Amino acid sequence: MIKKLKGVLIKGYQIASGTAPITPYKDGSIKLQKPFFQQRGFCMKGLYLATLNIDIPNHEFTIIKPTYYFDNLKWEKDFPAETFSIVSCTLVYKTKQYDVYIYYPHVETKSDHIQKKSTLEILSPFVDGITYGDKVEVLIDTKNISEFTKT
After folding, report:
1. Which of 66, 56, 57, 78 is nearest to 106 (CA)?
2. How far apart are CA 77 and CA 38, in angstroms?
3. What is the Cα–Cα distance from 102 to 52, expressed in whole angstroms?
4. Which candidate, 54, 147, 143, 35, places its Cα nearest to that of 98?
5. Burial of 35 by CB count in 10 Å (0-12 exposed, 13-18 middle, 19+ buried)?
6. Residues 86-117 pLDDT 10s
7. Which residues on neighbouring strands pair with residue 12, listed in sequence order?
8. Considering the chain, what percentage of its residues have pLDDT values greater than 70?
9. What are the residues whose beta carbons fall under 8 Å from the beta carbon of 49, sequence distance 6 or more?
10. What are residue 36's phi and psi, to 5 degrees?
């Protein structure tokens, strides 16, 4: 079942894009991870080398069946290996739909830059005109990711 979630674009840590004032990855973590993901079958052609951080207030998410799963991936020599789940979904901005992916570095293997439980990090093509505070919708398949409302 496809579920529509309303969210807002928020500013993240800017580590994925490499635009943070202080970052261990000047080219961005996504650019560095890309060849490792592609070697394992995740084609990132057409995806912008950054993430969109979508906050969906009062919600938390659990990945049930990722589209891609990379366990114990050593993508940077100076940092420990991480585990990633990638889940295909759809982003709706204004009236346009984009095929996108939820990007989830598992918190148990990540030492820093943990997102709020209500925030989805999205890998997407370049979305022209989008800016912090813009409202978006994320369409998820409930067989791949579950969400629950926190009260």
Report:
1. 66
2. 18
3. 9
4. 54
5. exposed
6. 999 999 999 999 999 999 999 877 666 556 78
7. none
8. 86
9. 16, 17, 28, 30, 31, 34
10. -70, -40
One-letter amino acid identity for 41?
G
d(CA 66, CA 49): 20
Tally the C-alpha atoms within 13 A of residue 95's C-alpha that lie toward its C-beta: 0
User: How far apart (Å, rounded) are the C-alpha atoms in residues 99 and 92?
Assistant: 9
Q: In this structure, are residues 76 and 32 in contact, taking their beta carbons and an 8 Å threshold? A: yes
- pTM for this predicted structure: 0.90
Residue with tokens 């928020």: 10
Structure token pair of residue 22: 């202080």
pLDDT in tens, 4-59: 999 999 987 666 765 556 766 677 788 889 999 999 999 999 999 999 999 999 89
Q: Are the beta carbons of 11 and 51 closer than 8 angstroms?
A: no
Q: Are 115 and 61 in contact (CB under 8 A)?
A: no
List beta partners, residue 10.
53
Phi-psi region of 124 (alpha: psi -120 to 50; beta: other; left: phi over 0): beta
Count of beta carbons in the 10 Å neighbourhood of residue 104: 20
